[in-house]
């Protein structure tokens, strides 16, 4: 690296644009309904049949002709012979002749000849004969074929997010599968010989691996299927072997650690051997060292994030999450931002975009944002106490208390 490359920082927006240029939406996949849940639809769905498919009863009661019970009141009930029962699912072709009725259950097909349903609550519930105490106009308590959806109607469009109600609608129109944008499969691993699995007893010099859990959870929140592979020691051969094993199930790979300039920065050393990965110094704080490229035979997007947990998470939010949303084919790619009044002064290094952990709240109808914790990128406890980042632009070094700032919201979910 030349001296100028050493010192020149890459703008955040340029790095993000390079990433988004390299990442393409995943090819659509035909999946069963429950696999489609949580995905984005890649086809328009039209109803092959009307909903409801046939006229049916909205109540348990008696199907009859409204003219035959027009005079029914509490004091002058009308008694009709009951000629049969129609249960939901029944295909018995009763025809209701004048002066008669059939007992009918909710969801059962309306028998020809009948035009109304008298709820059982308006009657004595009789089986051979029924005494009806209230008149019901034509069409009462009848659900008409197609009143929800007419046959041929487009019920869901390309790009629709398939939550539980949409999955229910797919089933209701008779679909057992749907073409969706699949959830990206994300492989997450942490590099560092100092790392132990959480729960392991600490020994001298060792720390629990926070990043693989943090980043796997973040990828899941972003809509991915994420696999926490766990810890890889600072050994390039082990890292390459692990990546080569994992690439088979990955649409995107995230590592943390090993991307700065220290000795044992294995990610930097290893990745050149299995793909085209660039390591840049990006003009941001935290998160300056960033690796990004395409690796393996499928040219899988690869992110080599810095090791400090806060740096790793900020990098995820700023670069990885938009890439995951691009893979998913959903907009907007970026977290929402708001303008808020900051409660305390902030400083930011010249030429860098600072992402400061903060708590955003509403006070008297106005957004107020309070920085939380220090600026050290190892301070994960303050990260866990934040719901947002104050974003201080590159050309600002001092932010006065009370001034307006841009705040990036870290909602748990965003669709
Ligand atoms: P590195 O980027 O590998 O130089 O790591 C920078 C700092 O982050 C070091 O103090 C590491 O011990 C720490 N670190 C790296 N990976 C993790 C991890 N997975 N969990 C917690 N801390 C980590
Ligand atoms: Mg390391």
Average pLDDT for all residues: 94
Rough outline: elongated
Largest sheet: 6 strands, mixed
Low-confidence region ranges: 1-6
SSE arrangement:
Elements: H1 3-7, H2 12-22, E1 29-32, H3 33-36, E2 40-41, E3 45-46, E4 56-57, E5 61-64, E6 78-86, E7 101-104, E8 116-119, E9 129-132, E10 142-143, E11 154-156, H4 164-172, E12 177-181, E13 185-191, E14 195-196, E15 207-208, H5 211-221, E16 225-232, H6 236-246, E17 252-256, H7 266-271, E18 275-281, E19 284-285, E20 289-295, E21 300-305, H8 309-328, E22 337-342, E23 346-347, E24 353-363, E25 366-371, H9 380-384, E26 388-392, E27 398-399, E28 404-409
Parallel strand pairs: 6-7, 13-16, 13-17, 14-15, 17-21, 19-24, 22-25
Antiparallel strand pairs: 1-12, 2-12, 3-11, 4-10, 5-7, 5-8, 6-9, 18-20, 20-21, 22-28, 23-27, 24-25, 24-26, 26-28
Helix pairs in contact: 2-8, 5-8
Adenosine monophosphate binds at residues 190, 192, 194-195, 207, 209-212, 256-260, 262, 306-309.
Structure commentary:
This protein is an alpha/beta fold and 415 residues long. The chain has 9 helices and 28 strands. It has helices spanning 3-7, 12-22, 33-36, 164-172, 211-221, 236-246, 266-271, 309-328, 380-384; strands at residues 29-32, 40-41, 45-46, 56-57, 61-64, 78-86, 101-104, 116-119, 129-132, 142-143, 154-156, 177-181, 185-191, 195-196, 207-208, 225-232, 252-256, 275-281, 284-285, 289-295, 300-305, 337-342, 346-347, 353-363, 366-371, 388-392, 398-399, 404-409. The strands form 8 sheets. Strands 16-13-17-21-20-18 form a 6-stranded mixed beta sheet, sandwiched between helices. A 5-stranded mixed beta sheet has the order 8-5-7-6-9, with no helix packed on it. Strands 22-25-24-26-28 form a 5-stranded mixed β-barrel. Helix 2 packs across helix 8. The chain is elongated. The two termini are 42 Å apart. Magnesium ion is lined by residues 191-192, 234, 257-258, 307. The site of magnesium ion has 6 residues, from loops.
